[in-house]
Amino acid sequence: MKRILLACSSGMSTSLLVKKMEEAAKEKGMEVEIWAVAQDKAPSDMEKADVLLIGPQMRFMKKKFGKVAEEVGIPFDVIDPVAYGRVDGEAVLNKALELIGE
Amino acid sequence: MNNKFMEFLENMLLPVADKLNNNRYLSALRDGFMVALPLIIFGSIFVVIANFPFLDKVISEEAFTAYQNALGPASAATLSIMGLFVIIGIGYKLTEHYEGEAIYGGAVALAAVLILTPQVLEGVSGVIPTASLGAEGMFLGIFTAFIAAELYRFFVQKAWTIKMPAGVPGAVAKSFSALIPITLTLTVFLIVRIIFSYTSFDTVQNFIYTIIQQPLTELGSGLPATIVAVLLIQVFWFFGLHGQIIINSVFDPIWYALNDENLAAFQAGLELPNIVTKQFIDSFLVGMGGSGMTLAVIILIFMIGRSRQLKELGKLGAPAGIFNVNEPIIFGLPIIMNPLIVIPWLVAPVVITIITYFAMSTGLVPPPAGIIVPWTTPPILSGFLATGNAWQGAVLQAFNLLVVVIIWWPFLKILDKNYYETEKKGESK
């Protein structure tokens, strides 16, 4: 079971991605838990996650999240803007799995 | 626009966004408002229900008054004294940032504000004027919460705390460890209050209100400052950075203070003093499909879109767009870094700001009534609610959408044609 955490300003636009990523995971026959939160909740939720991805519009928070992710010991990255615009669940899922090291 | 110039701009904006966002005071301020938000929306819902249109004509005057009085406490206890919750939120979040006992940070911030608040109203003592916890006290509350949390941290770090021997229950030890820092912090505020009572300002509240809050809100309620704020939001988004979250952390105290002034006037049945408020921005600019009023872009895609790329984007973006979530459009059209789109992207919101401002200043449309409508409320409905259940607010939003459609038309047409031709070329190969 892979646990993927997404974060943006209020967890709205990333929640669009959650559904698409779940669909992509289903197609692959994988068991994943994916959820989206507002940026202020992300640090406390990181403990429960295997990887954190943030929306490209939040990339100015990269430093802040990078530090927490390092402390918690999970990989972290900013979602590619093109994949984000297309709400490309598969691409983002692959990215997340790659970061986890699958 | 060449790439070097774009790169240069982005390299300038990113550190600004980073600084604004990672500034611990602005972060605490933003998160403090987040704490108050659910309560504010609860209060707003009941202001809307208490002011249902035509209700005063359907039922007797007596019944209507009783109805309004019964619902009154909902907003009086939340929306009207939102400063109270923001203060606790700021004290809590700032102390949390310093890894201190956050709940004491919130409590000490609130107590500090209450110490600075005149506890007399029209000769009656032993009261806390609610106005001082609403619009009027907003700035004092924010500054005091910052300083109280800082002092608390300072005294805790100085380790002037009472150490409990091992074996004392944790909660007991904690309450003692907070004792000295809280005592010292609040003593400082008491001294400040006493000093101010000897000045011509009489209270700190009065001092902050006259020297800082009034000039700032006056500036912030004007059209030029509003246009600057709107343009900054658009520019940040153009570079794919979340414009609101960056700009709001600076403007929210002003916009909320203006909002609460209108609410007080609305509930008292007086003329609304301000046009630009939190809701002016949230309902009439952001609440039109998201920043940049992209619901108009989606409508336009359905009207004139021929390329597969745009048609797909329209289908993808429409459901979220109705609720003002527009990241698919911003990153998918794409709007970011698109030299063709920069023109309507910057022009349309400025035009809409001006139209909305004058529609309200001339009295064609009532100004926002101080009700906080959640930003995910679809347009037309949000305009109606924000103006205190006025149909003119809904009509203005519909008109504004049309204006944005017209401004975007030629630009989207060119973009669509480019995509269409690329697609055709790809197929014929």
UniProtKB/TrEMBL annotation, chain A:
Gene3D superfamilies: 3.40.50.2300. SUPFAM superfamilies: PTS system IIB component-like. One of its GO terms (biological process) is phosphoenolpyruvate-dependent sugar phosphotransferase system. GO terms for molecular function: kinase activity; protein-N(PI)-phosphohistidine-sugar phosphotransferase activity. It comes from the Bacteria. It holds the Pfam family PTS_IIB. PROSITE patterns: PTS_EIIB_TYPE_3. Keywords: Kinase, Phosphoprotein, Phosphotransferase system, Sugar transport, Transferase, Transport. The modification Phosphocysteine is found at residue 8. Residues 1-102 form the PTS EIIB type-3 domain. The keyword rRNA-binding does not apply. This is PTS sugar transporter subunit IIB. It comes from Virgibacillus profundi.
From TrEMBL, chain B:
Signal peptide: none annotated. The keyword Calcium does not apply. Residues 9-411 form the PTS EIIC type-3 domain. Keywords: Cell membrane, Membrane, Sugar transport, Transmembrane, Transmembrane helix, Transport. It comes from the Bacteria. One of its GO terms (molecular function) is protein-N(PI)-phosphohistidine-sugar phosphotransferase activity. One of its GO terms (cellular component) is plasma membrane. It is a multi-pass membrane protein. The chain crosses the membrane at residues 33-54, 74-95, 102-121, 133-155, 176-199, 219-239, 284-304, 340-360, 394-415. The keyword RNA-binding does not apply. InterPro entries: PTS_EIIC, PTS_EIIC_3, PTS_IIC_cello, PTS_Sugar-EIIC/EIIB. GO terms for biological process: carbohydrate derivative transport; phosphoenolpyruvate-dependent sugar phosphotransferase system. Pfam families: PTS_EIIC. It is found in: Cell membrane. NCBIfam families: cello_pts_IIC, lacE. PANTHER family: PTHR33989, PTS SYSTEM N,N'-DIACETYLCHITOBIOSE-SPECIFIC EIIC COMPONENT. The phosphoenolpyruvate-dependent sugar phosphotransferase system (PTS), a major carbohydrate active -transport system, catalyzes the phosphorylation of incoming sugar substrates concomitant with their translocation across the cell membrane. This is Permease IIC component.
